[in-house]
Write a structure and sequence with these properties.
heterodimer, A: about 700 residues, alpha+beta, Aldehyde Oxidoreductase, domain 4, 3 domains, 7-stranded mixed sheet, 5-stranded mixed sheet, 18 helices, about 30% helix, globular, disordered N terminus, B: alpha+beta, Ubiquitin-like (UB roll), DNA polymerase, domain 1, 2 domains, 6 helices, binds FE2/S2 (inorganic) cluster
């Protein structure tokens, strides 16, 4: 049986998440008022709304799936869909195990009143954890359905089977799932029987998984019918805007709300530092907020500038705490090995803050009912935690808040918080109407959170055979994911140093693995040069056998790697890099062309990726392509500049993200390891892009590149 | 407040609105046509694309006064004879969507591109679509979808 979450979920060890910004003062009276009919409060116990418990593993379909009298299957999951394909994948998992057509499976996702809590959607957990749980629940349900049918025929269930929604027995029994379900209390049947260790379908027998099913809801997306969080419309709804500070560290001293309040249809809501308004249209709300801004008095504070960022980080270290704690792992004697190395090298790598910039800026709609219950629709990768944050902000019990997350316009680790939901709920409470609120792109750039910046200091030594003998690696601020080097090294020290970040920061696709892989793989090429070796040969000498080495060798071969590139044109450079994270493995090779003016173009990329047994080839390919191109943005152009507490380039025109034209030819190969469990794939392919390009530049120019972005 | 007559997806609508309000907010908030998406509000991402007299136009920077008297087509009105437009079908067939938020804008841009150039080479697709951002970076599948839509159009003709 798959291990499942119990009680406190195993926290994603490296996941960063900022605390909510608001906690409103709640007086007893206001609390009761917000409850409407005061008596209703008695009916809410902490956490009894909906299937509060963690998803159950194993032979318990209850809470995980339902079978309708029409034979359709509904799967419930607390996972979210932000474009990575989990909705389709989970439907496929259920269809596979239940033996029903994929079209007959619906998935209810991330509705805190209806779905079990499957933990946040991050860390590539859906594939290795949730999909197996869905499969087990569906396999258990299949066993029970066959039992029910065979009891009607007095037949041995061991010989029964279900296929395309029809249960059959060799003795002649045949019944459709719809017929069986119309005739049986399905909830009771599924709850009343348990199945010990339900057997899931072996990979070799997959009929649905392993094929590229059409994306769920594709037609709604291409016709504009799908409602994203920013598209939710409720009767009587108003549109909201929040007054933002003119700079980080600015404190609101006073605000004159009269002008805004005098505007027709506008409600101004103020609670402590929170000031916002609701109006019949976004345009009117915008005008009202402009009036509020004119009447606001701020006290400005000090804030460092991105020009001094890395000095600032190094000067502002601390011990952190919990997931943010500094850490140090050592083996052997690094100092001695550095002394005795045949050659030693030092490096200092810098990665800036960058923005996730999902196409849908954060948005929420909120509606209070007459009984103090709040429903919010919002896009977040942590629906249950954000539901709790919302409840806490208003002093509500968790069961009084329902969070529904419609499939959302992008996440990339950037939608862990529930700011928009809390803001919309506050305005809805004040206006006495449902409120929809969508952040502007400016707000999204300035007030969401950033992929952490990092300073990575490295030192290493090699012996006369080119073996790495010392490895000293310190990451300031950006995080611990993939901090460990995969190379054989007897003496090493690997440290993560917590810093007091000047900007609000959080998770990002593959977390700190992007920064750590960049520094490590670029530095490996420096060590290879010090050992006078070809970078590929150096890696193969120092990497143990295994899956990482397999993808590296496959990429080198596919790319046509040539030791030293004796026949290459002078303006060309070639680099290779590899890494592993979240149980999957990637190697990327890059060819660049120098333009003679200090610039360069990426001419082609070759990527080999391995994540165990492939469940959806087409979606996997899209995830790899998307990761690699997104990784090109981080490698080449993306960097947040800030000064005096303001973001200086928080617009698409000033913060270039990859476009069609920025997509180089890509040769992608997936090693489908059907003998290995499936791992998540939406993150790891990003990690080797930047170092492969940095190494290609080093190879072409002889000058190491230590700072992102590279262009 | 001013009254505007808008012709959208073949039907006439009268809206009363701030004269400087954008077409995008009006579609989304007054007419419940939420297929055009807000992405930047300054013409830089094209997730808000609509067709104005057949030309792909950023609705976020189009004031109502400029939309009046023109033929407006939104993603909700692109389909043909109650079915999908070939570009819509091609986007489904080629998995040309991850989160899909950019997709309505992509489809309308591609539909106009193919009308003007029924046989675009890859470079024409890239330059014709380059104004549209897909942050999921699903560009390769989108290019494949536009190529497929061109082929579908040919097969129909
Ligand atoms: S929202 Fe109109 S171009 Fe970005
Ligand atoms: S599919 Fe997500 S922005 Fe294009």
């Amino acid at each position: 049986m798959t291990a499942h979450f119990d009680g406190a979920v195993e926290p994603e060890r490296y996941e960063f998440s900022e605390k909510p910004r608001y906690r409103f003062s709640v007086s007893r009276r206001a609390f009761l008022q917000s409850m409407g009919a005061g008596l209703a409060v008695l009916t809410f116990a902490e956490g009894v709304s909906g299937p509060e418990a963690w998803a159950q593993g194993g032979g318990t379909p209850t809470g995980r799936l339902e079978i309708g009298t029409d034979g359709t299957v509904t799967v419930f999951t607390g996972k979210v869909e932000v474009g990575q394909g989990s909705r389709t994948q989970i439907a496929m998992a259920a269809a596979e195990e239940l033996g029903v057509p994929l079209d007959d499976v619906r998935v209810v996702m991330s509705d805190t009143d209806r779905a079990p809590n499957d933990g946040g959607t991050f860390g590539s957990h859906t594939t290795p954890r949730t999909v197996p749980e869905v499969r087990e629940a569906a396999a258990a349900a299949r066993t029970i359905l066959i039992e029910l049918a065979c009891e009607r025929w007095d037949a041995d269930p061991a010989d029964g089977a279900i296929q395309d929604g029809v249960i059959r027995h060799p003795g002649g029994g045949e019944i459709t799932l719809a017929e069986l379900a119309s005739d049986t209390d399905m909830d009771e049947a599924l709850a009343g029987r348990s199945v010990e260790s339900p057997a899931v379908t072996a990979v070799a027998d997959w009929r649905v998984l392993g094929e590229s099913a059409p994306k769920a809801d594709a037609e709604a997306i291409v016709t504009g019918a799908h409602r994203y969080p920013s598209d939710v419309r409720r009767p009587g709804m108003r549109y909201g805007k929040v007054l933002r500070a003119p700079a980080y560290e600015a404190r609101l001293v006073d605000v004159d709300t009269a002008a805004a309040e005098a505007m027709e249809g506008v409600t101004v809501v103020r609670d402590g530092d929170f000031v916002g308004c609701a109006a019949p249209t976004t345009r009117q709300a915008q005008r009202a907020v402009e009036a509020l801004a004119e009447g606001a008095e701020w006290e400005l504070g000090d804030h460092p500038s991105s020009a001094d960022l890395f000095e600032y980080l190094k000067a502002n270290t601390g011990s952190g705490g919990g997931r943010f704690s500094s850490q140090e792992d050592t083996e052997g004697d690094v100092a001695e090995a550095m002394e005795n190395g045949a050659a030693t090298v030092r490096g200092s790598y810098k990665v800036p803050y960058i923005q996730h910039a999902p196409m849908e800026p954060r948005a929420a709609a909120a509606e209070w009912d007459g009984e103090g219950r709040l429903t919010v629709w919002t896009g977040t990768q942590r629906p249950f935690d954000v539901r709790n944050d919302v409840a806490d902000a208003f002093g509500l019990q968790r069961g009084q808040v329902r969070l529904i997350m419609p499939d959302t316009g992008g996440g990339f680790g950037g939608k862990h918080t529930g700011d928009a939901a809390i803001e919309a709920a506050k305005l809805a409470q004040g206006a006495g109407h449902p409120v929809s609120l969508q952040w502007t792109r400016d707000e999204e750039f300035a007030w969401a959170y950033f992929r952490p910046a990092g300073l990575l200091e490295t030192a290493g030594a090699v012996d006369s055979d080119g073996r790495i003998t010392a490895w000293d690696f310190t990451n300031y601020n950006s995080g611990r994911a993939a901090l460990q080097s995969p190379y054989n090294t007897p003496n090493k020290r690997e440290r993560f140093q917590f810093c007091d970040s000047p900007l609000r920061e959080g998770s990002y696709r593959a977390l700190a693995a992007v920064a750590n892989a960049f520094a490590r793989e670029a530095f490996i090429d420096r060590l290879a040069a010090a050992a006078d070796m070809d970078p590929l040969a150096f890696r193969l000498l120092n990497l143990p056998n295994g899956r990482l080495r397999d993808v590296l060798e496959a990429a080198a071969e596919r790319f046509g790697w040539s030791a030293g590139w004796p026949d290459a044109p002078a303006d060309r450079g070639y680099g290779i890099a590899c890494g592993t994270e979240k149980g999957s493995y990637v190697a990327t090779a890059a060819e660049i062309a120098l333009d003679g003016d200090g610039g360069f173009e990426v001419e082609r990329l070759c990527v080999v990726f391995e994540c165990g047994a492939v469940q959806h080839p087409r979606n996997l390919r899209a995830q790899i392509e998307g990761c690699v191109i997104m990784g090109l943005g981080a490698a080449l152009t993306e960097e947040i500049h800030f000064e005096d507490g303001k973001i200086l380039n928080g617009r698409f025109n000033a913060y270039p993200v990859p476009r069609f034209r920025d997509t180089p030819p890509m040769d992608i190969e997936v090693l489908d390891r059907r003998d290995l469990p499936s791992a998540g794939a939406g993150e790891t392919p990003i990690i080797a892009v930047a170092p492969a390009i940095a190494n290609a530049l080093f190879q072409a120019t002889g000058e190491p590149r230590e700072k992102l972005p590279l262009a | 407040m001013t009254e505007f007559m808008l012709r959208i997806n073949g039907a006439d609508h009268t809206v009363t609105s701030d004269p400087d309000r954008s077409l995008l907010q009006t579609l989304r908030e007054d007419l419940d046509l939420t297929g055009a998406k807000y992405g930047c509000g300054e013409g830089a991402c094209r997730s808000c694309t609509v067709l104005l007299d057949g030309r792909p136009t950023a609705a976020c920077v189009t004031p109502l006064s400029r939309a009046e008297g023109r033929e407006i087509v939104t993603i909700e009105g692109l389909g043909e004879d109650g079915g999908l437009h070939p570009v819509q079908q091609a986007f489904i067939d080629e998995h040309a969507m991850q989160c899909g938020y950019c997709v309505p804008g992509m489809i309308l841009t591609a539909a106009a591109l193919l009308r003007d150039n029924p046989d675009p080479d890859p470079e024409a697709i890239v330059s014709g679509m380059n104004g549209n951002i897909c942050r999921c970076c699903n560009y390769p599948n989108i290019v494949r979808a536009v190529e497929r839509a061109a082929a579908l159009r040919h097969a129909e003709a």
